Amino acid sequence: MHVSLRQVQIFEAVARALSYTRAAEELHLTQPAVFTQIKQLEDSIGLPLLERIGKRLYLTDAGHETLATCRDILGGLERLEMRLDDLQGLKRGRLRVAMVTTAKYLVPRLLGEFCVQYPGIEASLIVTNREKLLARIANNEDDLAILGAPPEGMDVVATPIADNPLVVIARKDHALARCKRIPLARIAEEPFIVRETGSGTRLAAERFFAEHRLSLKVRMEFGSNEAIKQAIAGGLGVSVLSQHTLALDGVGGLLQPLDVAGFPLRRKWYVAYPAGKHLSAVAEAFLAHLLERKEDEEALPA
Ligand code: PGA
Prior knowledge:
The protein is α/β, with parallel strands linked by helices. It is built from 11 helices and 12 strands. It folds into 3 domains: 69 residues, Orthogonal Bundle (Arc Repressor Mutant, subunit A), CATH 1.10.10; 107 residues, CATH 3.40.190.10; 92 residues, 3-Layer(aba) Sandwich (D-Maltodextrin-Binding Protein, domain 2).
């Protein structure tokens, strides 16, 4: 059986995405090139690996078997690469960090410091929302993940690395801007601009209001903290956001946290990885860097 490593990589990507087009995008190949490689792989194996029923692509039994072996091969090569990097100490190696959107106010800076210290390390940073990050942790796609609360119902090692208070943010000239201890029921009457479903910030805010038998009057929903800040500055409503989002206030100090009973919601940033995962020397070193910087970060005014 003649199977190339390239075919193994291509088949793994197609089987994961169940789409030739998405796999081609991911691998920076054309769709016909991907299709041809899969056909050649099927010819060497002598059985179809994928079948199209209606508009969807499915793995055949042979496809499932082949996928398991492809994953073993790719996993083995990745472990070999990691062990070879470890032999080189921190002189070279790869570091894959994934984080929730809101952690952008903290993590790139810490990663930047680390990369300056170890210039031979090739670091990548994936930015996504909580829901997608949890799926990445479940699939063991990254070395380390940074998120706003430890994943529930998943076997992970999660360590706190900094505070992440959530506050109610409004425009400075909001009618409630000077009020003290605004009751939760009063703020719940305001129009809210919220993050997209799947965001950890949104989940924490909705849970808190629900615990007090209140629900948010959602006026708008955006997939970005910065867009929400602009909308608040534009007078469209208030929002619950991480206090970190005010640190680099791109709207020129037009916003402020309101003094709402029960706020700030006390949360923390966590670094997490699947329990039992073997961390590379580089990932261990970055984790140590995060923990070393923990106190400095917590002492920073947000
Ligand atoms: P988010 O996560 O960026 O998905 O809202 C932040 C958090 O969990 O605190």
